[in-house]
Amino acid sequence: MKLTMLYSFLKADIEEIEKELSKAIDSETALLKNASLHLLQAGGKRIRPVFVLLSAKTGHYDIHRVKNAAVALELIHMASLVHDDVIDNSEMRRGRTTIQAEWNNQVAMYTGDYMFARALNYMTVIEDATAHRILSDAIVELCLGEIAQIEDKYRFNQSIKDYFRRIKRKTALLIAVSCQLGAVAGEASAEAQRRLYRFGYYVGMAYQITDDILDFTGTEKELGKPAGGDLLQGNITLPVFFAMEDRELGHRIRKIHEDMPKEDLQDIIDLILKTDAIKRSSVISQRYLVKALEQLDELPPSRAKKSLRDIAIFIGKRKY
Q: Do the record's keywords include Metal-binding (predicted)?
């Protein structure tokens, strides 16, 4: 089943969000407009806006108010990807060349900044200081996570706690805030806002761990970027932590560097796949998903609640 089938009743509103995203990144400057469209038209799962809309359904849903939070969250996510690609010197994203590869680093950095700024424009439409504080705190944490990732590259003696703290900041908090801000924009109860935040946090942790697993098990066609790219860039993910428990394999992993020949890297990936690292990582991802689903148990039955549950389960099983 396709992910979009799990929230098909939101089809008209998702189309509204897509139109608003195009409008948001429009610019009289052709270079800025083309660079922004380059990423937007590459697609994406739009998980964050979907979570905003579904969470808002637990309160008083008004698409004209809620869409501002949904667009802001997706723009912040897109901006972080653009900056990520500069830091990692990545050439492919979602099956297309990255902005920095298509143009250059300067264009990419300002395009990312532009998306961040446009996100703030949209959030100001929601006249709620609490919503603004939630979003600004999340952006601060996102930046801290990005810096931590730079500092942790090829640092093979880092602790597994460093990894969990990093993915919390880089991925989980923005998904948690997507759910929370949806509930805030929909004026849902304080209890619903807390539970949806925690739901998003646990789903976000599971989502990133699954992403890190797919970096080893997925193909370039499925991922839209080269498999094993995270490891080559020195990002120590959960499967790598488990694989390094094998003394001999750990010794080989610690010798990885950015100029390593592709064949040598593939040999190491093949060895990691022969360990129980992927299975153990999946178990931890599933534990986070169980915690996420528990948060939904106390919310009243609704079509939105069912979709949130179905999406969480889908994330645990996804292959791309």
A: yes
CATH of the domain at 13: 1.10.600.10
Closest CA to 138 of 89, 69, 195, 185: 69
Q: Structural domain tally of the chain? A: 1
Residue 228 tokens read as: 């094993």
CB 136: neighbour CB atoms within 10 A?
A: 12
Considering just the CA atoms, what is the radius of gyration of the chain in Å? 19
Which residue is it, tokens 């992403």?
Answer: 211
Instruction: Quote the mean pLDDT of the chain.
Output: 94
Structural domain harbouring 55: 3-317
Res 226 pLDDT > 80:
no
Statement: residue 1 has pLDDT above 80: no
| CA 320/CA 97 separation, integer angstroms | 18
Structure tokens at 194: 């807390």
Q: What are the tokens at 104?
A: 């250059």
Q: Is 218 helix (H, G, I), strand (E, B) or coil?
A: coil
Q: From start to end of the chain, where are the E strands? A: 92-93, 96-97
- Provide the CA 72 distance to its chain's centre, in angstroms: 14
Q: According to the model, what pLDDT value does residue 320 have?
A: 66
Question: How far apart (Å, rounded) are the C-alpha atoms in residues 77 and 173?
Answer: 11
- pTM of the full structure: 0.94
Q: What is the 3-state composition of the chain as percent helix, strand, coil, each rounded to the nearest 5?
A: 75, 0, 25
Residue 144: count other Cβ atoms within 10 Å of its Cβ: 15
Measure CA of the first residue to CA of the last residue in the chain; give whole Å. 13
The arithmetic mean of pLDDT across residues 148-162, rounded, is 95
What does the alpha-carbon distance between residue 96 and residue 37 come to, in Å, rounded to a whole number?
Answer: 12
Give 75-118 as a DSSP string: HHHHHHHHHHHHHHT--EETTEE-HHHHS-HHHHHHHHHHHHHH
Is pLDDT above 80 for 140?
Answer: yes
Closest alpha carbon to 181 in 118, 143, 125, 114: 125
Extract the tokens encoding 210: 């699954």
